[in-house]
Structures are given as structure tokens and as C-alpha cells.
Design a protein that fits this description.
heterodimer; A: mainly alpha; B: 362 residues; mainly alpha; globular
Chain lengths: 313, 362
């Protein structure tokens, strides 16, 4: 029984990590005032660029190719998000339409390049990040087996990032300024904050983090890039909303959704006669219910989705 | 700038978006070492192959590919006119199509009753899936984009669940196929178009174009919908029931998407492929934007997209350019349609520069 719980917990953690970091990306973008439904596409780009790099360099570079791939996937997401930033901030475009374009372009470009460079749509890597036992920490009674055996290093990197990002957003002047741009950009502007710059930073952060999320999917459990992350970006968006745009609650939401995905897989494999589809649909239905329940009190950054126009009050 | 110029601008921008889409596509081909002119030639040759010698199969395929696009495009455009962004076409289309397939696979009735029944049921289901975001928007002020995204994935998994439960297919990845008597395909159309799968769906789509145009342009209801889209506060002040209009608009948009599901699943695939969402939703957004959210515009832009999707096969074989190029072009078209301010500024600058020149000549 203990083994079973440990397994479920560990599997849930695999799904949680990319979901969490992508949702945090969305958090930065939306907190700065730009809605980013293109997370799915940014994940695809990170996922693909990492895969392409690892496949092309693994033979010559060995294991370090995987970590470099992760880094490049992250950067690629950041660069690709500039398209969204330029359209939605500088050109004051409809942010949802621009996000849709990002999703479409990301998967089309990855498959196009994959076909042109490798010849197939699927880019498969031979080996991902290895799972290891953390020396001392795994000896801790309950938490040890849950967290520190068969763990991916990427999971800890992402948890560490959560801590850093939370600190950045809530304990530094920069974070306060960024959040101000998403709540009341005109007030922020009048205090001398460069709203345009802050929003660019927010969107680029979302690109970097979603890119990392996509690359993490590749090097942990999927092992291949095929121009899609199967709606994980939208699930991250759901986690962001379910977590009420707050880092710790987003962690909880991501873990909950990750657990649901795991439960779906287990239900399919085990003799329990619960169809996996119910578990798969559950996060989305829960998010809808949560939206209705939250709707009484204000949710989400107030100015998210509106282009900043200094002349409008 | 005067009014006439503004009108021109609204027509020029989508045309420029398409040209820019092809231009960026050409640049991407150049970077990846392909010959863009050759590729575009094959794209169009592929679309019109055999047509001069009287073989209409390609024309039929083009109409076939356009049919769901017209309907999803109409759905997006209709909601847009009321100021709503229906990104949920995907889920509405899937769920609507599922109900049509369900009826087509299980109900025993003569064709003349079965087909209309399946089509109507698809519309109804799409409308139900569309009315929920409408209600949540009207009652709780929850943004329809978020709700429809969640509902797309809910639809994906629920359809898979019900399909495996009620109409399991031969493979795990698809539902049971429909009976032949439930298909929108007809012998005479297949004969006329030399074996193409083009079907009655196109007539449904054309009727929908007419009906939507009529509602939007010729009825008081359509006027109200557009007024709500322009300015909800003013419409409310003028005595219009804003909330009711939001709900109705989403319902109709959902119904159109459901119709697209019927046209696609009982007109073309004959079953529901499980585990993936149809790509016609995002494509419908592109079609609507390109068609300026007007029914006739949607019709023409759907035909253009249909043309590209028929031609891309030959392009990939002869010019060795991956088919995804077409999807890249569509993505870029959406991007430029969103960023129309950029193009608008270019044109305004161009016009102003010319004016300055003319003035200095005087």
C-alpha cells in the first residue's frame, strides 16, 4: 500500500513539474496585464527545440546535451514569445487572437522544421534526465521515499524556481511594479513605471518558463517531440485560474491536476473499473466550477487583456 | 483620412495579410533551402489538377475541405459580431458531430428522416455546448474565452468516454462508423465530381451563409446583436436586453459549430476519431478574421483555405516542401489579422507621404 501511494505520488510529480512552471509563466504574463493563451504553443516550441538539439548533438556531446537542450528550449520559448509581446503590447492587438496565432505557428513550424531537418514529424531522443536517489534526504521517514527516490532533478529545479519567482513577485520592488501594471497600468505609469517594458518582461518570462515546461516534458516522461504537447498548455492555463493567479495556490492546483492525470492512467491500468476519461475531464470541469464560485469576488489581474493606452483613463 | 479610405483599408488589410502570409512562407522556404516559386506553383497546380480536362475531383475536394471551414468560420464570425470570442468552436463541433454519429450509427430510419434528424441533433448539441459559456458570461461575467477553452477539453474527454461506452469502434482510436443511410454523401454528387467525397454538407453550409447574412443584415435581432458588440453599455441604455443577446448569440454560434460537426463527421469521416480535437476550430478563427466577420467574406476565405489544403499534397510530393507550410501561412495570416494596426500604420504612412509629395508639387 505504501509502495502504491509512493508510486502515485511520484508519478503525479512528473506531471506537476511542467504544468507548474508553465502556469507560473502564465502568471507572470497575466500579472503584468497580458493574457497569454499561447502557453500551449510556447511549450511546443521549447519541447521541439530541446528535442532537435539533443538529437543532433547527443552523439558528440553526451549527457550534457540534455541540460543544454533544456536551456535552449527555455530560451526558444522566450524568443518565440516576443511575437506575442510585440503584437499584444506594441501593436495593441487582440491578445486572444495573437495567442491563437502563436499556438498554430508553434506546432506548424516545429513539424515543418522536423520534416525538413530530420525527415520525420516525430523527433525522438534516446535518453532523458535520469532518475536518481538523493543521498541523505531520501532517508527522511515519510517525505524521503515520496520526494527523493526516483526523482528527476528537473522537478527540484522547478520547485526552486517557484520559490525564486514567488520571492521576485511578492518581495521585491520589481514584483510590485509588475503586478501594478496588471492591476492599474495608468496609476503605475503615473508613478514612473514603464508599463510597456514591464509587460514585455512579463510576456518574455512566460515564454521562458513555458519553454522550460515543454522541454521538461521531453526530457522526463515523453521522450519525443511531435509538434504537440497534448493540451498541457491549456491545462496549465486552467491551473493558473484554479490557483487564482497566486504562486502557492498554483502549485496546489498543478499538483492536484497532475494527480488527476496520474489517477487516470492508474484507473486504466488497474482492475478498478473507473474510465480514465472522467479523470482527464475532471480538472477542466473543476476549473469551470471554480470560476463560477470565484466570480462573486474579483479574480485575476484587473487590466489583463486590455492593451495599455496612455491616453485612455 | 476620409470615410472612403477607411472602407478601402478594411478590404486591403485582409488581402495584405494573405500576401504577407505567402511572403513569410516564402522566406521560411528560402531559409530551409526550398524553392518557394516552385512550391507555390505546385500548390496551385495541385489544387486545380485535371480541372481543364474536365476532371472535377479536385474541385470537389476543395469544396469538401471548405465545407466545415465555412461553418466554423461563420460560428466565430457570428459571435465576434456580438463582441464574443468563440474559441470553443472546436468542442461544439466535436460534441455536435458526436451526436450526429451516435444517431447515424444506432438509429434505424429511412434516409430521408435519418439524415435531417442527425443534422438537427448535431446543431442542437452544438447550441447546448455554446449556450453554457453564454450563460456564464451573462450571469457571472466570466470571460467566454476561458470557459470555452475548458469546455473544449471537457468535450474531448466526454466524447471519448461516451463513444467507448455506447458506440465502440473496431479500434481504440475511433468510434463505430455510421450506417450508409445516415451519410451526407450522395451518389450523384460523387458522380458529378468524379469520385470526390464532396457531399450535401456544402448545401447546409451555403444555406447557413444565407441565413446568417439575413439575420445580421436584415433583422432587428441582428441589429441588436451587432449593437451589443459595438457598445454593450449604449445598447443597454437603448433598452436592449444585453444578457439575453449574449446568450442567444453564443447559442447560435454553437449551433453553427455543431452543424460543422455534422458536415465533417457524417459527411466525410463517417466516425469520430478519438483523442484529438478537430483543427477546424482555430482554422475557423482564421477564416472569420480574413473574411472580416461577414458571411460572404467567410465563404471566400474558406474557399482559399480549401484550395490550399487540397494543393498541399502535390506541393509536398513535387516540391519536397512539408505540408505544414500551409498551416504556417494560416498562422501568419491570423497573426497579421490580429496585428492589423501594424499594416494600418504602414498604409497610412504611405498615403500621407504621397500626399506630402503631391502638395509639394503644387
Amino acid at each position: 500500500m505504501i509502495d502504491f501511494i509512493t508510486n502515485v505520488f511520484q508519478d503525479a510529480l512528473y506531471y506537476t513539474a511542467p504544468l507548474l512552471i508553465t502556469a507560473l509563466g502564465g502568471l507572470f504574463s497575466e500579472r503584468s496585464g497580458v493574457v497569454n493563451i499561447g502557453l500551449e504553443g510556447l511549450m511546443v516550441i521549447g519541447n521541439f527545440v530541446a528535442a532537435l538539439f539533443i538529437v543532433l548533438t547527443y552523439d558528440s556531446m553526451g549527457y550534457s546535451a540534455i541540460w543544454l537542450g533544456l536551456l535552449l528550449g527555455t530560451l526558444a520559448g522566450g524568443i518565440f514569445s516576443l511575437l506575442h509581446a510585440y503584437a499584444s503590447i506594441t501593436l495593441k492587438a487582440n491578445q486572444v487572437i495573437s495567442g491563437t496565432a502563436i499556438i498554430m505557428l508553434a506546432s506548424a513550424i516545429s513539424v515543418y522544421v522536423a520534416r525538413a531537418v530530420i525527415g520525420t514529424q516525430n523527433v525522438q531522443i534516446k535518453i532523458g534526465v535520469t532518475r536518481g536517489v538523493v543521498p541523505v534526504l531520501s532517508q527522511i521517514p515519510i517525505i524521503g521515499p515520496l520526494l527523493f527516490t526516483k526523482a528527476y532533478l528537473t522537478t527540484f529545479i522547478i520547485l526552486l524556481l517557484l520559490l525564486i519567482l514567488w520571492f521576485l513577485l511578492y518581495k521585491t520592488p520589481f514584483g510590485l511594479r509588475l503586478r501594478a501594471c496588471g492591476e492599474h497600468p495608468h496609476a503605475a505609469d503615473s508613478m514612473g513605471i514603464n508599463v510597456i517594458k514591464m509587460r514585455y518582461i512579463g510576456v518574455i518570462m512566460s515564454g521562458l518558463l513555458a519553454g522550460l515546461g515543454g522541454a521538461t516534458v521531453l526530457v522526463t516522461y515523453s521522450g519525443q517531440a511531435s509538434g504537440s504537447v497534448n493540451g498541457l498548455g491549456f491545462l496549465a492555463l486552467a491551473a493558473l485560474i484554479f490557483g487564482k493567479w497566486h504562486p502557492w495556490k498554483v502549485l496546489f492546483a498543478s499538483f492536484f491536476f497532475g494527480f488527476m492525470k496520474t489517477a487516470g492512467t492508474i484507473a486504466r491500468l488497474s482492475s478498478l473499473n473507473i474510465p480514465q476519461e472522467i479523470f482527464q475531464a475532471f480538472p477542466y470541469i473543476m476549473t469551470l466550477v471554480a470560476l463560477v464560485l470565484f466570480s462573486k469576488n474579483a479574480t485575476g489581474p484587473k487590466a489583463a487583456g486590455e492593451p495599455y493606452d496612455p491616453g485612455k483613463r | 483620412m476620409n470615410k472612403l479610405n477607411k472602407r478601402y483599408l478594411t478590404i486591403i488589410i485582409p488581402i495584405l495579410s494573405v500576401l504577407l502570409g505567402f511572403l513569410v512562407g516564402a522566406i521560411i522556404m528560402l531559409i530551409s533551402g526550398k524553392d518557394p516559386i516552385n512550391a507555390y506553383l505546385w500548390l496551385f497546380k495541385g489544387a486545380f489538377k485535371g480541372m481543364l480536362s474536365g476532371n472535377l475531383a479536385r474541385l470537389g475536394d476543395m469544396i469538401l475541405a471548405s465545407t466545415p471551414l465555412i461553418l466554423t468560420g461563420l460560428s466565430v464570425a457570428f459571435a465576434f459580431r456580438t463582441g464574443l470570442f468563440n474559441i470553443g468552436v472546436t468542442g461544439q463541433m466535436l460534441f455536435g458531430g458526436f451526436v450526429a454519429v451516435l444517431i447515424g450509427a444506432t438509429v434505424d430510419l429511412p434516409r430521408l428522416i435519418l439524415v435531417p434528424l442527425a443534422v438537427l441533433a448535431a446543431m442542437l448539441m452544438g447550441a447546448v455546448w455554446g449556450i453554457i459559456p453564454g450563460l456564464l458570461k451573462a450571469k457571472y461575467r466570466i470571460h467566454e474565452v476561458v470557459v470555452t477553452i475548458m469546455m473544449n477539453y471537457t468535450a474531448l474527454w466526454l466524447v471519448q468516454y461516451f463513444s467507448k461506452l455506447i458506440i465502440p469502434g473496431h479500434f481504440d482510436t475511433e468510434s463505430q462508423p455510421i450506417k450508409e443511410s445516415a451519410s451526407l454523401r450522395t451518389e450523384w454528387m460523387t458522380d458529378v465530381f468524379d469520385g470526390s467525397s464532396v457531399n450535401m454538407g456544402i448545401f447546409l453550409a451555403l444555406i447557413a451563409v444565407l441565413v446568417v447574412w439575413f439575420i445580421l443584415e436584415k433583422t432587428a435581432f441582428g441589429f441588436e446583436l451587432k449593437a451589443v458588440g459595438f457598445n454593450p453599455e449604449a445598447s443597454k441604455y437603448a433598452g436592449m436586453k444585453v444578457n439575453r443577446n449574449i446568450i442567444l448569440s453564443m447559442m447560435i454560434a454553437g449551433g453553427l459549430a455543431g452543424l460543422a460537426g455534422a458536415a465533417y463527421y457524417i459527411g466525410y469521416t463517417d466516425h469520430i476519431p478519438l483523442g484529438r480535437l478537430p483543427s477546424y476550430g482555430p482554422d475557423g478563427i482564421a477564416v472569420a478574421l480574413l473574411g472580416l466577420n461577414a458571411p460572404v467574406g467567410v465563404l471566400f476565405s474558406s474557399l482559399l483555405f480549401g484550395l490550399m489544403s487540397v494543393g498541399k499534397g502535390l506541393m509536398s510530393i513535387r516540391a519536397k516542401v512539408p505540408e505544414e507550410l500551409v498551416q504556417i501561412i494560416i498562422g501568419i495570416i491570423i497573426y497579421f489579422a490580429a496585428a492589423n494596426l501594424l499594416i494600418r500604420n504602414w498604409i497610412v504612412k504611405l498615403i500621407n507621404r504621397r500626399k506630402v509629395k503631391v502638395n509639394s508639387n503644387d
